[in-house]
């Protein structure tokens, strides 16, 4: 029996010691591991050990929760329009909401 481990930064599929997948396949909303464990625990950058948002999004952009590559410009945050799939660009604004007409 193999006691193999995937090299960093690859993800090892649960129950399949010889199955390593690329970190870009983790939390991409497609099950690449036989048991789907690459799509578990994919909350906002509690995501598996993948690249941090700063390495994915361009400067002055924020990564949308639950995604691996949906980035919105910082000026879109708290502008009363949901630009991220889960609307997290409009959360925790604390009085920073724009007064734009909708």
Automatic annotation (TrEMBL):
Please report a single Pfam family linked to this protein: Ldl_recept_a
Cystines in this chain:
27-42, 78-93
Q: Write down the SMART domains for this protein, in alphabetical order.
A: LDLa (SM00192)
> What keywords appear on the UniProt entry?
Disulfide bond, Lipoprotein, Receptor
Q: Does the keyword Disulfide bond apply?
A: yes
Q: Does the keyword Mitochondrion apply?
A: no
What name does UniProt use for this protein? Answer: Low-density lipoprotein receptor
Organism per entry: Elysia marginata
